Automatic annotation (TrEMBL), chains A, B, C, D:
Lineage: Bacteria, Thermotogati, Synergistota, Synergistia, Synergistales
Subcellular location: Cytoplasm
HAMAP family in UniProt: Arg_succ_synth_type1
Pfam families on file: Arginosuc_syn_C, Arginosuc_synth
Assembly and oligomerization: Homotetramer.
Binding-site positions, L-aspartate: T120, D125
Keywords for this protein: Amino-acid biosynthesis, Arginine biosynthesis, ATP-binding, Cytoplasm, Ligase, Nucleotide-binding
Gene name for this UniProt entry: argG
Residues engaged in binding ATP: A11, Y12, S13, G14, G15, L16, D17, T18, S19, A37, G118
Reaction catalysed by this enzyme: L-citrulline + L-aspartate + ATP = 2-(N(omega)-L-arginino)succinate + AMP + diphosphate + H(+)
The organism of origin for this protein: Dethiosulfovibrio peptidovorans DSM 11002
Protein name: Argininosuccinate synthase
Length: 411, 411, 411, 411
């Protein structure tokens, strides 16, 4: 008789891999508790619960985490204009620490000895789950059945059939997908040659530039302390605003990303994403920051934004550096208030207008009109001092006069 | 009788300001030598020469600097993905040190005691001219008649008429323009309210998204050591390639930029640019770098790119830091070889394909197919070590378990 | 009769320059109010007050600012290990914004139209005063009589005698000095040749290595949240702790600094400082941070420390970037608790012991003894993944085998 | 009969671990070739060769690598002021890539199938060897017998005795040592409590402050392009200069380092080093840079120096980022020429004089004497522009006047 090992809490999507994982873990002596979280991926939680219990789980938790996802993960990322390598808005990366947190909580609630995820051995998500759980509860063991079992796709399907697991149509899909409120990630074989353009059927929440409407649509997004609070003047909670904007911007083809990305585990990978809300909101937020933050803050913040994105991407969400960067960012966001007009059209989200009561743009300094308040004569002294180090440098390092032979001169 | 002060070499565009400056300098005792440079702004050099001499200059130099501009200024900027504040491709900023260099050369050739430019006291260009000339020849005095003369627009026009200077239609234009191969800069009164969208008639070398063709156009750009050498497989010199691409990309509405920019002289200013070639080439170049540079190089280079842009923007082109950054960048560019397919459509330049013999993308590591060469089991040890510092941190700083009250749980 | 211009508040040290300034400002129509602040430079406030009134001031404020200086300026700088160019602990730089703040406050209290300082036109302090006051009250005019009056030293002394100002012995001193709790700054002619060693009589609060005692002295400094709270186990307020440590460390020759420093106003300057407390406390604080902060925090904080020092040095104390960096730093300091043993001996402050309840040093991981808790086998997978990008890079860029000719090989 | 596996090249110090490794590898079917390198650790190469062959090696290479070590590893590190975490001069870290290079060369020369090192599973050196060899020859297997064999110290000694390996006195030493020209690294049990001061008998190449001579000694070090070429005016090759300076500075107690260091493999470790030459030369080099490099170069170089040190520390010596940083650094070093006077006394290396024909220190700008060439009036305009953004910021964000209650005011 098999040794009983206690309970394991499995992050359960209800797809083939995690369904097979339920059985595979049971066969190894675990009582399996599943956790299915709604982070905006249009999941039917009750269906998943039923399927889990039917597959053999001793308990099936389902949770609507959309609100917590937005407030504790998406908004901090937006305030930091979080883009890994300047390009990827971190959508999947942001959901992993949240799900890890809830896995740890359920494990505690159920007295489980381990948690489990359905990731393979070459992705980023295994790192994010395992590092986050190690941070949240160092005592918990983390299992990775999909990484361990060495099934081929065919063997996995046979195993599923043998164990009465329904094998859905999705196993035929050439695409591997992860989705949440902040974006949708797509991987597939055809993408593995970077010269190939991404096939159109890979996308779901955005249309192509070609079929996008022939008329632009303007939206006005209002921010308070760096967070969007209203769309076209209508106040909205974060979940609603992101979903609404996803629909509008996606319909104009906005938010597609196609990149070669450096994975933490040591190689480059072609990745395609659809992130209509993220792309639109980050563009608007960045523009509003140019109006409300000083030059020095903009420059230093940009460096910290890169660190923020690296931390989120590599599983270091619950880390002291992340907390310290949040403190810096939050201080800057106290002044990021105002409204941004964004034109959505044929794949582009273009900022066409900015207004803010916290603006440090000063018309009277900038203007070339008669209201000009800038002291032009101060510029003379300024330039003299500004250029002095360079003048001194060149006096110390005399050079031959520039030769001019390749230039045609007429005089 | 007026004291003779010697020769001054004036950077001369032939517009109202620099024409008036010729007379104004003559009245102050200088013999004026003008220098008119072609940096791709479609200037008629012979016309300018005639106008200069007619206005009273003792000599009028005209120079075709397009080739030198591309090779010594634009290509280094492209290799560094030079964008001030991440947005402005530095077009005007790049031409100033070149013109300064030629002013210094003509001054030497003519035995002049000073050089002069036509900038006002609140722009960036005065800084760039004066700092560059101070670096190139610390003995030369730099005059800035427009900054000094305190004419109103009306007084300036009256002065011009009195001195027989033709006042062209351009003085009625609401726009202040600077143009070269790498882009076109536009300032005007209507832009001084950042909530106003930029008027369509401000643009000249790009169409609007709305009137751009309904069919996309692909171009293939081939790079060698970070520099574009062929368009659609046809080898071209740099000037031709930039001009050709400006035409194609501009016709698809690519390259418009509208931003609030932090000037060195201490205030924010609304700036609008059209840079079809710059935007397309930088997008292609950056994408090719993701395929041919390592993760660490990409991250460090990004930081140095910001420094590069600041140096170019603030007049520090001929500086030792700029030279050291060039050395770093040039080392990295040895491997930036390959071809990039860019789709130009309705204002967007989208990279849709990459290929390179210097690629460090490794299909066999990235693939999820059977050719997978990645050692999945190594990930286990990797994650253990990667997460160890965070685990240790959290063991030292025990926290209460996460409360979960706001989340709806069903199980 | 002279036009009355209103009141001006003058930062008044009571030395020759500021005494002359009182008269000079009076002659220009101002009623002069003086402000003399004690920031730890052993000033006799009542004497200064008497001298000011005698010289003609209409009112003379004297303030003990030592406590505020430590809490609002020195401690934030210590938490940020504030050292300009990695070397200068910012002593004078920290007092300027505080004095500016009080100048602005007195100006408001007195209804003054201007404030004034006694700096020349080439130092840093003029920048710090004027930028800080511009930030604190943009309406206040700032006067700089010493910068304006163009007296030679002799003319100034004659003027003083003519106006009944006592010319003290200090005017014969070859040294220009600024002093406060955090350190003492020395400038003089002999230092202007960087090959000259600084003369011994330039120093006042530290002895030379040569005459320092032949026996070392240990001190134990206890920190809470990055701030020193006890010396050798005795709790102390900040002012007392700094003064006590200044005495002890100075007596062992600790704290002398001799450097070429880049001034904001565009040139390099030889500067000598004595900062016994600053050097000892920063060494101790940094060491404690290696025990209580993570690797990533240490690295990112080091970059921000450089920015912090630049801001303090260049007059940007009251700036939004400074506030955001403070927020980052304060977050990190929550864990900087513990005790540091420092050996003071012959000019050196050497950390010889560290202990902390917030330590993230983990003996069981670090030990080579049998208690070793580190999983050695995880290292194998870690190294494999860690080295993978470089292996891939080199596979893509095959090189010839290393030639070995210059090495003597015997086998 | 045992399967023959081919040749393995073992990095062989001749101590207990690597001697046992010879036998252990032979037992697993390898023909062992040893490589013993002289990198300045006072090794008797011929003795090591004899011992290796006697233990059973089929061939024993011995190499004097001192010159190559200095030129290709130490000098680049000095030019980059290479200090890991600002403190450790990378001594052991620099020798590993060199030894790896020679292991790869011998492996090629001998047709070996693998190389081997004697590191454990928790140090840095395993990473450096394995990553470097993976970069230099991705086909070579790397063995780590000490990491694999799981001997206790006692079992290892028994095994050694059984195999006729001489067990020297060093196995009784409480210290684990690595030494080369650039420094000596010490680890031991007593150091594992960071509150313990390091025992005096741990040190070998430096005396304590207490017993150092009571008279200081000045040395003058001359640099060309960032590299020391003469000591006290006497030209010397690099190896001789470092050895000579090690002796002089060590005799004055200079070069001891005691730190908590963050290892790449995820934990903090107490490390003690003696690096008399490194500490003295880096201090001199940094000081000379303050005289010969511009402010901007100094600041940017400091950031890159941290990256350089991280790369060297973590095994990324042969990496593209390291090459690009070298290019930056080499460009800056073209001007780092001159002579530095360093006073060595009681543990301190203090720079007391600097002179350079490449100096950008300008006496006429810095002086307060009558030769003053600085334009004081330019400062007025400069400060006005410099402070403008802050003034604008504060105008946009009006604050209540500063309260002043806690300050004692008398007037």
């Amino acid at each position: 008789m098999m040794e009983k090992k206690g309970k394991v809490v499995l992050a359960y999507s209800g797809g083939l891999d995690t369904s097979v994982a339920v059985c595979w873990l049971m066969e190894r002596g675990y009582d399996v508790v599943t956790l299915t979280a709604d982070v905006g991926q249009s999941v039917n939680l009750e269906e998943k619960k039923a399927k889990s219990l039917q597959t053999g789980a001793v308990a099936a938790y389902v949770m609507d985490l959309k609100k917590q996802f937005v407030q504790e993960f998406v908004w901090p990322a937006l305030k930091a204009n979080g883009m890994y390598q300047g390009t990827y808005p971190l959508s999947s990366a942001l959901s992993r620490p949240l799900i890890s947190q809830q896995l740890a909580w359920v494990a505690k609630n159920e007295g489980a000895v381990a948690v489990a995820h359905g990731c393979t051995g070459k992705g980023q998500d295994q790192v994010r789950f395992e590092v986050a759980i190690g941070a949240l509860n160092p005592e918990l063991e983390v299992l990775a059945p999909v990484r361990d079992w060495h099934f081929s796709r065919e063997a996995e399907i046979d195993y599923a059939k043998d164990h009465g697991i329904e094998v859905g149509a999705s196993v035929q899909s050439p695409y591997s997908i992860d989705e949440n409120l902040w974006g949708r990630a797509i991987e597939c074989g055809a993408l593995e040659d970077p010269w190939n353009e991404c096939p159109e059927d890979a996308f779901k929440i955005s249309v192509s530039q070609e079929v996008a409407p022939d008329k632009p649509q303007n939206v006005e997004i209002t921010f308070e302390k760096g967070i969007p609070v209203a769309l076209d003047g209508v106040s909205m909670d974060g979940v609603s605003l992101i979903l609404k904007l996803r629909e509008i911007a996606g319909a104009h083809g906005v938010g597609r990303i196609d990149m070669l990305e450096d994975r933490l585990v040591g190689f480059k990978s072609r990745e395609v994403y659809e992130c209509p809300s993220a792309i639109t909101l980050i563009a608007a937020h960045r523009a509003l920051e140019t109006m409300t933050l000083s030059k020095e803050v903009l420059a230093e913040k940009k460096r910290l934004e890169a660190s923020f994105a690296d931390l989120a991407y590599t599983g270091y969400w619950f880390s002291p550096l992340k907390e310290a960067i949040d403190a810096f960012v939050d201080k800057t966001q106290e002044n990021v208030n105002g409204t941004v007009r964004v034109k959505l059209f044929k794949g582009m989200a273009t900022v066409t207008g900015l207004k803010s009561l916290s603006s440090v743009y000063n018309h009277d300094l900038a203007t070339y009109s008669e209201e000009d308040a800038f002291d032009h004569s101060a510029a003379v002294g300024f330039i003299k001092v500004w250029g002095l180090p360079l003048k001194t440098w060149k006096q110390a390092h005399k050079q031959d006069p520039e030769k001019n032979e390749s230039i045609s001169v007429s005089c």
